[in-house]
Amino acid sequence: METGIKVGDVMKTGLVTISDGSMVYEAAKKMRDKGLSSLLVTQGNGDKIYGIITNTDIVNKAIAGGKGQDCKVKEILSKPLVGIEPEADISDAAKLMGSEELRRLVVLKEGKIVGILSERDIIKISPSLYDLIAEKAEGHLK
What is the value of pTM for the model shown? Predict the structure, then answer.
């Protein structure tokens, strides 16, 4: 079901990163201070983004997983990143999120990350697409 709405029209372009060598509590504080639920992760102090850390990663992998807040981001980040082109329809993004059981996709243009698209971004624009996301992940939820 094509919506005519492109990923590039909905994505967030203000990319916020953290180094993989940072402590998890630093990531949690940065998320809180910036009102975010995820940060893109860079290798060392460089610009190469290769993963993402989410509030769910912090809760499930660090705190509940017994690593605690003093572990490093690289110990609990999620990778590899799954991407989509900015010209793709948001219904395609919803299908991809559902099939891959993801809440976020990086947006890639010519191999470079230019934005991030979350499940919430899609639902704000087209609530009916939530069914596509949930339908694909339904097997996982049972």
Answer: 0.84
